[in-house]
Amino acid sequence: MEWLIRYGGDAEKVPLYDCKTSDRQPGTTNYVIGAAFIVYGVIAELIYILDLMVMVKKQHRRLSCYKIMIVLGMYDMAAISLNSLLTGYFWIKGTNYCVAPTLMFVTGAIALGNRSTIFIVPITKAAHGIPRRSQHEIIVFKDERTYVVLLIPLAYSLYFCFFTSPLLFNSDQTAWFFFTFAPEHDHVMFLNYPHTANNLLIVVVTCLLYVQYSRVLLRHSKVGSGLSWAQKSFFIQCSSICMANLIAALIYVYMQFFPTPSYFVLVGHICWQLGHGKDPFENAI
After folding, report:
1. What pLDDT does residue 90 have?
2. Domains along the chain with CATH numbers
């Protein structure tokens, strides 16, 4: 995004992002996938609105876990608007980068910032959910300190949004890539290594966190009277969301470097959607 601002808000003036060699014609259209993404996005957004209406009530938002869930909800709703609603529209129109360069650049930068951060917020949520005995661990999430902790993923998001290359949707390739796919452009010049490092780091951190989470819950269930329904539900919810994020992270790294079957790319994108969209459905249940 910083590049776009520097070059006057015109994506084609940004070095490497011109479309001089492109015919600017729409790519592959798929009304079924596009409509399915939009319907999924609308339903998820509506359920999230209902969830947030409950969570923002004073008796709930005073609790740190609800503060985290509210922020997570805001990130999720922003992500769903991009990876489901906007992507569905792009599928219907067959939109590629050179069809709408500046729109694609802006939305891709926002999508990348949101996508990079959304791995951290569920991990924060899971870390908060681990039974804690240390006074220091409790202090971290006490009162308004939770918002301070949540500034970390916000800063992380802004870094990816403003200072790394954006994601660009390509209907011919089934998902969002960093490459413009314009003729005579070299895809190596568009690789986003911070994104790759972020995704691989999240894979490692997620696995380590949930191994520890499982151990603590198992020990807690043996010492006490067993796990409550809420604890079991919380664990299943966090695990399923992070599993979807983990699969999406791995596929999105792989497909940037190697030729990938379109159905496999689509699975990665759907996992990205589920990583944001499962939460409101599970909260509603």
Report:
1. 96
2. 1-18+26-277 (1.20.1070)
